[in-house]
């Protein structure tokens, strides 16, 4: 599948409010074609009006990525802390050994938190995919520009991109792992847990789960596109496999000791 089509699919499958924050790949491709066919293109040692305009637009795109990514990252850190505190509060009050034990309320509240935690996990995976696919788009459009102009813009610009906040996903990947650990320890699956969906519970093929699986497929395909490592390669994928994602989605009754 060509990258432009893959990007279009990802944008369509992204969360509400995310669509306008992806790389304007189609517009950049049109710009490259227009610039190289115009009389203004007089490439000489990296100094051309075409390159200046192209770089200006790419820098604007990176600023857009950074602003969106950092806003989401900050929100995720806050939400992770709030979810963790809610779990502790419910356990310490309504749990079996809490100050006001209440099995029905405990099960109800913990089920709500689990659903939020699973969806939160999916959103974070989508943000890692956002970083990956926009970086890949930058590398591809730079390759097109250099190929058609004889320029050498790709390497220095990619080196700059590697230092940008939107490319640095270590914190989000760490939160993803912590989220999985919390789900595994606080909401362990019961051997007799039904796989049939319950009202309000996330199920395979719906909502964030569907988008998360699509994102994981995209990240794998992007990495599979090149058999050799280079300056432009993405780092190894440090995210859960499909089995892990699906196991998080399956409904499991809250167990009370």
Automatic annotation (TrEMBL):
Highest taxon in the source lineage: Eukaryota
Residue ranges constituting the SPX domain according to the UniProt record: 1-159
Pfam families in alphabetical order: SPX (PF03105)
Coiled-coil boundaries: none
GO biological process, one term: cellular response to phosphate starvation
Designated name of the protein: SPX domain-containing protein 3
Organism from which the protein derives: Sesamum angolense
């Amino acid at each position: 599948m060509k990258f432009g089509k893959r990007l279009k699919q990802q944008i369509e499958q992204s969360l509400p409010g995310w669509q306008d924050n992806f790389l304007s790949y189609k517009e950049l491709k049109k710009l490259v074609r227009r610039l190289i066919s115009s009389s203004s293109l007089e490439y000489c040692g990296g100094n051309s009006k075409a390159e200046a305009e192209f770089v200006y637009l790419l820098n604007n795109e990176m600023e857009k990525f950074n602003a969106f990514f950092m806003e989401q990252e900050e929100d995720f850190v806050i939400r992770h802390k709030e979810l963790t505190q809610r779990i502790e509060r419910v356990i310490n009050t309504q749990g079996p050994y809490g100050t006001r034990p209440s099995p029905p309320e405990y099960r109800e509240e913990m089920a709500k938190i689990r659903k939020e935690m699973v969806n939160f996990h999916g959103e974070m995976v989508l943000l890692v995919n956002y970083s990956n696919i926009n970086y890949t788009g930058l590398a591809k459009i730079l390759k097109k520009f250099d190929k058609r102009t004889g320029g050498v813009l790709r390497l220095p610009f990619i080196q700059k991109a590697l230092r940008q906040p939107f490319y640095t996903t270590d914190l989000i990947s760490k939160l993803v792992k912590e989220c999985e650990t919390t789900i595994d320890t606080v909401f362990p699956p019961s051997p007799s847990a039904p796989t049939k969906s319950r009202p309000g519970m996330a199920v395979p093929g719906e909502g964030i789960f569907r988008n998360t699986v699509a994102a994981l497929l995209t990240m794998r395909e992007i990495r599979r596109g090149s058999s050799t490592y280079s300056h432009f390669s993405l780092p190894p994928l440090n995210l859960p496999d499909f089995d892990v994602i699906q196991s998080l989605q399956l409904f499991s009754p809250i167990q009370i000791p």
